[in-house]
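step=encode ok
step=design start
structure_in=
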């Protein structure tokens, strides 16, 4: 461990989920360092993982979500990213500890160093203490980095801002209230709902126009 981290206490979490045992090493400087975060557990309970998924664990922390996903669909299909170097050190250690050392782990401030745009699933538990600035970047960036038909899944204890922001970016959002946590799910569609509405209106106007003028002007 580097000199700047020598005063940080290291912790070990043993977690069993769906009959699979995980071991995570954490530092006391990291979020939820004593146990796997309850919001994260609530979120993954509502995710249906498919074998053809390509997953980004955005703001991965010490790697719970990404390692769980890798156990489901294979480490080569998972990317984990975080801006915190201590978190990434633990994420790498935990990936190896849980035999998922082929996960791609990136040091990135949001999407700054993430160049792929074909993810089918982006999962995130964004920090609450940043006055929505990080969440805003995560939501807007997710839309750009998902392939059409891909999903953003995000968990938070806040409701109104997230619902409105995700809906404005994706054109629609679903949510579940689970034990005090809101799990938001939004699909990147070929057309946003409001875009589809405009297209439908446009078609109606075209039909109306065709009926109102002689055929030789159409």
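sequence_out=
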């Amino acid at each position: 461990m580097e000199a700047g981290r020598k005063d940080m206490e290291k912790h070990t979490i043993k977690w069993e989920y769906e009959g699979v045992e995980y071991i995570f090493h954490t530092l006391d400087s990291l979020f939820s360092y004593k146990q796997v975060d309850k919001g994260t557990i609530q979120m993954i309970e509502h995710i249906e993982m498919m074998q053809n998924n390509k997953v980004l664990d955005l703001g991965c922390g010490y790697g719970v979500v990404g390692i769980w996903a890798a156990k489901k669909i294979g480490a080569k299909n998972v990317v984990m990213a975080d801006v915190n170097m201590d978190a990434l050190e633990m994420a790498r250690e935990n990936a190896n500890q849980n035999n998922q050392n082929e996960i791609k782990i990136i040091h990135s401030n949001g999407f700054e160093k993430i160049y792929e745009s074909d993810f089918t699933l982006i999962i995130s538990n964004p920090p609450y203490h940043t006055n929505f600035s990080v969440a805003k970047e995560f939501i807007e960036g997710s839309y750009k980095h998902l392939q059409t038909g891909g999903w953003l899944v995000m968990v938070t204890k806040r409701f109104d801002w997230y619902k409105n922001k995700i809906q404005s970016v994706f054109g629609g959002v679903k949510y579940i209230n689970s034990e005090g946590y809101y799990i938001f799910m939004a699909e990147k569609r070929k057309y946003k709902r409001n875009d589809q509405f405009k297209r439908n209106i446009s078609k109606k106007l075209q039909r109306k126009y065709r009926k109102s003028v002689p055929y030789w002007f159409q």
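step=design ok
step=annotate ok -> The first helix runs from residue 38 to 44.
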